[in-house]
């Protein structure tokens, strides 16, 4: 086992004592055994300490921390602290209410080694309380990966990619100011740096849809974060990958900012309103303004 790369599984958690046990059982069941599982609590008020304590006592590969004050409250701060404490050559983020297929790590490590890529992405599936599959997360590959990811043609969930730690060391990982769209923003930044990845077209994790799932969204509360994430990604691509920016790219973001502006105005979310206005401004340039209202160009390119 010593000649196998160590995989660091990083799991943030908050009041998931009733769910995380099943998640950790799926980690224990992995056919690939050279892993460490770093669990970072984000200030739980339930019996999370007691539940996780049993796993830490029973298996030294589990490591349990509480998010320090130097990291902002929320899953991103917990993930980032877990990354700081990790020792593995590979990084696998995971959520505390989801499940790993037993071969998840084994197949990913094998794909990383055989294909010499910077990260591997697998399919996932959304399941209900009875573990019946509702939907699959399977749009993970396109030869123009960055552009396709930014435009939503392909999507990665938190659980999908496994990264070489080396490609993350010189980059900011999760933006702790974001409460929504943080994965999209993070993966977009990574793709600006490297599009060297291998798709595993097999379901290797299950996302559980529950009443208190962290996947349940509130659009009003998350509007500021959504707009900020769009601005950050637009600026990052403009800075590092101007080669993919065309009229359709700009139109995509402009439509997003206009939608968010209208939504923020209707809901009296004035901070989001100003952010959306700023987004509209940065998405425009003089040539784009001409083309945006040019019906011949519009009809030709849609």
What secondary-structure arrangement, pairings included, does this model have?
Layout: E1 7-13, H1 20-28, E2 35-41, H2 48-58, E3 62-66, H3 75-85, E4 90-93, E5 98-100, H4 104-115, E6 119-127, E7 133-137, H5 145-150, E8 161-164, H6 182-193, E9 197-208, H7 219-240, H8 247-266, H9 270-283, H10 286-292, H11 295-301
Parallel strand pairs: 1-2, 1-4, 2-3, 6-9
Antiparallel strand pairs: 4-8, 5-9, 6-7, 6-8
Helix pairs in contact: 6-7, 7-8, 7-9, 8-9
| Broad structural category | alpha/beta
* Element string (H = helix, E = strand): EHEHEHEEHEEHEHEHHHHH
What helical percentage do the residues reach? 40-55%
Task: Name the CATH homologous superfamily of the largest domain.
Answer: Spore Coat Polysaccharide Biosynthesis Protein SpsA, Chain A
First-residue to last-residue Cα separation:
53 Å
Main beta sheet: strand number and arrangement?
Answer: 9 strands, mixed
Determine Rg (CA atoms, Å): 20 Å
Give me the number of helical elements: 11
Strand content: 15-25%
Number of strands: 9
**Low-confidence runs (pLDDT<50, min 5 residues)?**
none
Assembly annotation: single chain
CATH level-two architecture of the largest domain: Alpha-Beta Complex
Overall geometry: globular
Describe the structure.
By secondary structure, this protein is α/β, with parallel strands linked by helices. The protein has two domains: 7-208, Spore Coat Polysaccharide Biosynthesis Protein SpsA, Chain A (Alpha-Beta Complex); 219-301, no CATH class. 43% of the residues lie in helices and 19% in strands. It is built from eleven helices and nine strands. The chain has helices at residues 20-28, 48-58, 75-85, 104-115, 145-150, 182-193, 219-240, 247-266, 270-283, 286-292, 295-301; strands at residues 7-13, 35-41, 62-66, 90-93, 98-100, 119-127, 133-137, 161-164, 197-208. Strands 1, 2, 3, 4, 5, 6, 7, 8 and 9 form a nine-stranded mixed β-sheet that branches. The protein starts with 6 loop residues before the first strand and ends with a helix. The model has no long low-confidence stretch (mean pLDDT 90).
